[in-house]
Design brief:
This protein has two helices and two strands. With 79 residues, the protein is an alpha+beta fold. The protein has one domain: ACT domain (Alpha-Beta Plaits, 2-Layer Sandwich), CATH 3.30.70. Strand 1 and strand 2 form a beta hairpin. It starts with 6 loop residues before the first helix and ends in a 30-residue tail after the last helix.
């Protein structure tokens, strides 16, 4: 992906072809990670994506995102 013009477009076209929405995406200079909630065409999508590079799949995962102001400050809760 590094210096690869049009790489993300090609990746997104695969998901579009199989009408599979991407819920969340993160990118770096050398990797793209996505989450999807529908895996009906996952095998077909993976087959096409493997032509671009190495593909890894983690199934049955949950993503927790925490966004807040002054997040470095925490308060203790007495349970």
């Amino acid at each position: 992906m590094l210096l690869a013009y049009g790489f993300l477009r090609k990746v997104f076209e695969v998901f579009e072809k199989y009408r599979t929405s991407i819920d969340m995406i993160t990118t770096s200079e050398v990797a793209v990670s996505v989450t999807v909630d529908n895996d009906i065409y996952l095998a077909e999508i993976l087959k096409e994506l493997e032509t671009f590079g190495t593909v890894e799949v983690d199934t049955n995962q949950t993503i927790v995102s925490i966004v807040g102001n002054e997040i470095t400050e925490t308060k203790r809760c007495n349970a």
